Amino acid sequence: MDVRHAIGLPTVGQFGDVRTLLGLAVSAERHGWDGVQLWDHLLYHQPGWPVAGPVVAAAAIAAATERVRIILTVAVPRRQVQEVAQDAASIAALSGGRLTLVATLGSMDSEYTEFGLDPDLRARGRALDERLDRLQALWRDWGHPPVPIWCGARWPRKAGLRRAARFDGAMPTFEDQRVANVAPAAFAEAASYVPGLDIALEGFTSGPADAGRLAPYAAAGMTWWIEALGWWRGDLSAARTRIAAGPPAAP
Q1: For residue 250, is it within any domain?
Q2: Distance (Å, rounded) from C-alpha 232 to C-alpha 216?
Q3: Which residues form the Luciferase-like domain (predicted)?
């Protein structure tokens, strides 16, 4: 499969503003990127940081763009499944079918405990499985085209990848991948659990000249490169500059 390229946008801190996220997404479309991936948080580790609603941001991006795929992360176990189904169907319709859901367990226990929800990973896994089945049933009942679903996974744990194999793709995460790009061998091992499906990998490059760095991942099955943008790479100005440089792809 050909590799496509998205920008990965936090929804917290400097990035925790829907207008900011919208501007970055519009710039990404203008500069040749294929997609925009959004985080999903209610809180964050740094107290006082603003946190933007990813569903609102996704809807705004859908209305303001024509081509980029909107890759919306959703911590499904802490949401009502009927609302996820309705929101996803609405954004998919608004965007002309350009929505992909990344279904995750959520990375912060406090986003469960602070709102009276069970943070146990096994309970969250069971809830995710049940709600994914219900999500698809609701779309069928309502007559909505299904939205592609990728599943999040935390390597080297295998449960998320086994779940992903039942759907349309996977987005595994790896230890220290904000410090350095993932070792190709580790990615290849994870990708072997979801052959033939979309598989997205987050990392960092400097521009089109770095296209060759993606070759080992593409050979292992990567179909989407997510250019991770966030405060660990600099401020919003740095993010805008990286987006304007274009994706790591040959002209």
Answers
A1: no
A2: 25
A3: 16-191
Domain total in the chain:
1
Structural domain containing residue 123: 4-245
Q: Which residues in the chain belong to E strands, given as ranges?
A: 4-9, 35-38, 69-75, 99-104, 149-154, 169-173, 198-203, 224-228
Residue type at 239? A
Asked if the structure places residue 96 within a domain, the reply is yes
pLDDT values of the chain reduced to their tens digit, one per residue, 251 residues: 699 999 999 999 999 999 999 999 999 999 999 999 999 988 787 788 899 999 999 999 999 999 999 999 999 999 999 999 999 999 999 999 999 999 999 878 888 888 888 999 899 999 999 999 999 999 999 999 999 999 999 999 999 999 999 999 999 999 999 899 999 999 999 999 999 999 999 999 999 999 999 999 999 999 999 999 999 999 999 999 999 999 998 66
d(Cα 188, Cα 215) in Å, to the nearest integer?
Answer: 12
User: How many distinct helices (H) and strands (E) make up the chain?
Assistant: 9, 8
SS3 at position 66: coil
Instruction: Tell me the β-bridge partners of 172.
Output: 153
107 within a domain of the structure (yes/no) = yes
- Distance separating alpha carbons of residues 192 and 248, to the nearest angstrom: 24
Q: For the whole model, what pTM was predicted?
A: 0.95
* Nearest-angstrom CA–CA distance, 20 and 77: 27
Domain CATH code at residue 82? 3.20.20.30
